[in-house]
Amino acid sequence: MAEDDMESLAQAVNEFAYRAGQEFVTMRSEVAAAVQLLNQAVNSVPRMYIVADISARDAISGANEGDQCQVKDASADPTVDGGSAIYVWSGAAAGWVKVSESESMDRDMTVSSMPESMPDGLTDGGRLVVDISE
Hints:
By secondary structure, this protein is an alpha+beta fold. It has helices at residues 3-44, 54-58, and strands at 48-53, 68-73, 85-89, 96-101. The protein is built from 2 helices and 4 strands. It has a 4-stranded mixed beta sheet.
């Protein structure tokens, strides 16, 4: 191979390596941008925490607005008589805001007295009203 041919080949290899390097850098920055977008998307999806009690809810750090927390025993909340409750994080100023509670789910639903026979209509598409008050 002639010296001029060797020099031309070396230039071609250098040019190829330079372009390949640029493409690698471009591809790497595009991948980094895609990863950043994915992280933003994942972090913007509200999370649901399930904790044992109010103190465990209050210990959650890094909650984002819209995150929810189900507290299994929310009785430490003065607005909850007993049972569980669901709260939504509304930012540092408002904190956790109760959106629902499920104390009625914990009631013992027993019927204190039942007639021996049901009146006509109550067993065929009618309804039976049961008092669950304590």
